[in-house]
Amino acid sequence: MNRYQIKQYLRKRGITYSELSEISGVSKDTIGYFLNGKGVGNVDSVEKIFEALGLDISEFNDDPVPSKSYNIEEWRRRKKELHLRFEDIVEQSGIPMSTVQDLFQGRTKSPRIDTVNAIARVLGLQKPVKEDESVAANSTLVLTDEEARLLAAFKDLIPPMRDYVLEMTEKLVDSQSKSSKNEKRA
């Protein structure tokens, strides 16, 4: 499941960001940023969103959500096993020294997902996605000229316009399927 599928899930059930905010305790802005791909969110917020929707966070595949992989004791154990210094973790993860130290010392209660993922990869606690395991590497997609033009135009749009186009497309598809169901009944 990815962000787009979560947004579809919300639409199909008629759940607004405001309602999700009330249910989850996560601000409407945070939900919007996360679901529109403008921010990665922090572990606690993402877990609350998934829990409120009754979805399994381990199935989220936009940014692998570490969920319970932020376990300080496990991190300390792996750091020691691998004979890593904080400097090594900083160099390999690209995360600033102060952030790494704060995480290992438990001073950061709700870290950003991308930060946890970067450190978890260095510690070998999260399997990186290899190119040959990706869907794109194992499949071939043949597009018509019309589909290729549509895709090229879509890629040229800025992110908010892409969201708008997707939303309008979903509405058109919903409208079309509703009218074909009504025609079948008549």
Topology:
Elements: H1 3-12, H2 17-24, H3 28-35, H4 43-53, H5 72-81, H6 86-93, H7 97-104, H8 113-122, H9 145-156, H10 159-185
Helix pairs in contact: 2-3, 2-4, 6-8
3D structure, described in words:
It is a single chain. With 186 residues, this protein is mostly helical. It has 3 domains: 3-59, 434 Repressor (Amino-terminal Domain) (Orthogonal Bundle); 67-133, 434 Repressor (Amino-terminal Domain) (Orthogonal Bundle); 145-185. Helices cover 60% and strands 0% of the residues. It has helices at residues 3-12, 17-24, 28-35, 43-53, 72-81, 86-93, 97-104, 113-122, 145-156, 159-185. α2 packs across α4. The radius of gyration is 20 Å and the shape is elongated. Mean pLDDT is 77; it is low at 128-140.
Mean pLDDT: 77
Termini separation comes to 36 Å
| Number of separate helices | 10
- Low-confidence runs (pLDDT<50, min 5 residues)? 128-140
Could you tell me the CATH topology label of the largest domain: 434 Repressor (Amino-terminal Domain)
Quaternary form: single chain
- Please report the first level of CATH classification, the CATH class of the largest domain: Mainly Alpha
The H/E string reads HHHHHHHHHH
How would the global form be characterised?
elongated
Radius of gyration: 20 Å
Percent strand equals: under 5%
Count of spatially separate domains = 3
* Number of E-state strands: 0
Biggest sheet architecture:
none
Architecture per CATH nomenclature, i.e. the level-2 architecture of the largest domain: Orthogonal Bundle
Helix content: 55-70%
Structural class designation:
mainly alpha
